[in-house]
Amino acid sequence: MDFGEWYAQINRRVDLRIRNRVQTLMQGMHRSTFRGRGDDFEFFQQYTLGEETGHIDWKASERLEDGFLVRKLREERVLEVWVAADLSASMFAGFSTEGCKQRLLLEIMAVLGRSVIRQQDLLGFIGFDSAIRTVLPPFRSEKALVHLLKTIWDFQPSAGERTSLLPVLQFFETHKGSWKQKKRQFILLISDFETEEDWVPMAQRIAASHSICPIFLEEKVPENLISSVDVLTYRDVESGEYETVDAKAWLRLLKDQKRREREYCLERFQASGIKALFVSKETFSIEGFLQFLEEHRF
After folding, report:
1. Where does residue 137 rank: exposed (0-12), middle (13-18), buried (19+ CB within 10 A)?
2. Out of 29, 32, 52, 187, which could bridge 212 as a Cys pair, Cβ 3.0 to 4.6 Å?
């Protein structure tokens, strides 16, 4: 399957019923509690000493014998959604090309991107492995989304680069511009979380000011992966090392390792108070993903 065929399929899956649901879920979530300059008039208010004179409506104030009227405008909140995506080698390796975590990342990006752009919100993207590799400033163009998806589709990970979450989290702690405004941002941190770093405290600090949601990508181990093979040689895609192992013992060890990693991450997320989503190719659905976003309440 090439990229064009894949993108056509994902577009067909986001059918009219789902698109209507997307609009329903996201409507009403963007009105800001802050008052300030915007496009929509709210009401007139008597001018008080200390306010900016640029807010005075001189024409309306002519009707007053004394004082001035200030136009209060409703600030329409434009939601800024950021996707921080793991592009390390482990995301591109798997038991099959169609089932690897990179394809799952693409599906999540496609559904989220089309949803955000349809609402005229902004979508930013950061790609990382052991360091930040690319930063795409927030956009609302479908052409830019397609280009981003095609870039991820064609991306070749660097050999020997392990996953590190600290650089990308530090970006969100120090990023200037709109990030430092009082508006809340929404971050989706998408990774397989194959790292030994203690990144949760930094995520908690970010969560104090902005919504952050880790999405844990899983790949199920096929039950019929090994039948009559006794010994196999495999290569660790992140370290580059080869190892020869007993096939059935390795399979049992792999399943146990994935189970323990999942339990450990789930325990950390629950202890930190950060709500996370665990998803695999078999469990991902557009409807379920949108429901999760609704519950997370942008």
Report:
1. exposed
2. 187
The three-class DSSP label of residue 147 is helix
Number of other residues whose CB lies within 10 A of the CB of residue 168: 25
Q: Which two tokens stand for residue 77?
A: 């909140």
What number of helices (H) and strands (E) belong to the chain?
A: 9, 10
- Which DSSP string do the residues of 29-88 spell out, in sequence order? S-EEEEEEEEEEEEEEEE--TTS-GGGB-HHHHTT-SSS-EEEEEEEEPPPEEEEEEE-S
Angle at 13 between CA 9 and CA 18, to 5 degrees: 155
Would you say the C-alpha torsion 288, 82, 119, 109 has a positive or negative sign? Answer: negative
Helices in 99-215 by DSSP H: which ranges? Answer: 101-118, 142-154, 166-174, 200-207
> Is residue 135 classed exposed, middle or buried when 0-12, 13-18 and 19+ CB atoms within 10 A define those classes?
middle
What is the C-alpha to C-alpha distance for residues 279 and 297, in angstroms, rounded to an integer?
19
What pLDDT, on the 0 to 100 scale, is given for residue 197?
87
Angle between helices 101-118 and 3-13 (to 10 degrees): 50
Domains (range + CATH), the chain: 3-28+78-296 (3.40.50.410), 32-76 (no CATH)
Distance of alpha carbon 75 from alpha carbon 33, whole angstroms: 8
pLDDT in tens, 125-141: 999 999 999 999 999 89
Long-range contact set of residues 288-294: C-beta below 8 Å, sequence gap at least 24: 289/108, 289/111, 289/112, 290/18, 290/21, 290/22, 290/25, 290/111, 290/115, 293/25, 293/112, 293/115, 294/25
pLDDT tens digit sequence for 18-56: 566 655 555 545 554 444 444 456 677 787 776 667 778
Closest CA to 253 of 234, 238, 278, 266: 234
Q: Is the dihedral of CA 259, 265, 269, 270 positive or negative?
A: positive
Tell which residue, 74, 35, 71, has the closest CA to residue 54: 71
Backbone angles phi, psi at 245, to 5 degrees: -140, 165
